[in-house]
Amino acid sequence: QVHLLESGGGSVQAGGSLRLSCLATPYVYGSSSLAWFRQAPGKELEGVATIERDGRTNYADSLKGRFAISKDNAKSTLYLQMNSLKSEDSAMYFCAADRPGGSWYNPDEYRYWGQGTQVTVSS
Q1: Do 10 and 120 contact (CB within 8 A), yes or no?
Q2: Strand, helix or coil for residue 79
Q3: How far is residue 2's CA from residue 4's CA, in Å, rounded to a whole number?
Q4: Which H or E run includes 57?
Q5: What is the pLDDT of residues 8-29, one digit of tens each?
Q6: Tens digit of pLDDT for each residue in 31-43?
């Protein structure tokens, strides 16, 4: 069963914006944490941002000010607004859910994963 489904990726020029969406099943959406990760070719999975059930957020330090995570409870959907995109933001972006504990940026802590959506930024 697919619990998380990402969309919104694509190709954009440097300086542009994209908004990613992640539709979750209601059970998974109601779990403790929702997050975005990304993985560029040849690199490890990197935590981008997380949002807790109460709305508290955390971001990778390098992305603060350019990326914004949010969610819509009525739609069981997680979002990632990405602005001022750079070529180094090119990656496969994944949403993740259900982290009972541990560090938000550790992918091993998450129980559910989407299949990803590709973001390509051309300079």
Answers
A1: yes
A2: strand
A3: 6
A4: strand 57-59
A5: 999 999 999 999 999 999 989 9
A6: 779 999 999 999 9
CB atoms within 10 A of CB 119: 22
Identify whether the C-beta of residue 99 lies closer than 8 Å to the C-beta of residue 33: yes
Q: What token pair was written down for 86?
A: 């750079």
Q: What angle do CA 50, 59, 33 make, to 5 degrees?
A: 10
Cβ contacts of residue 93 below 8 Å, gap of 6+? 6, 9, 20, 36, 37, 38, 48, 80, 116, 117, 118, 119
Residues 6+ apart with CB under 8 A from 118: 9, 10, 91, 92, 93
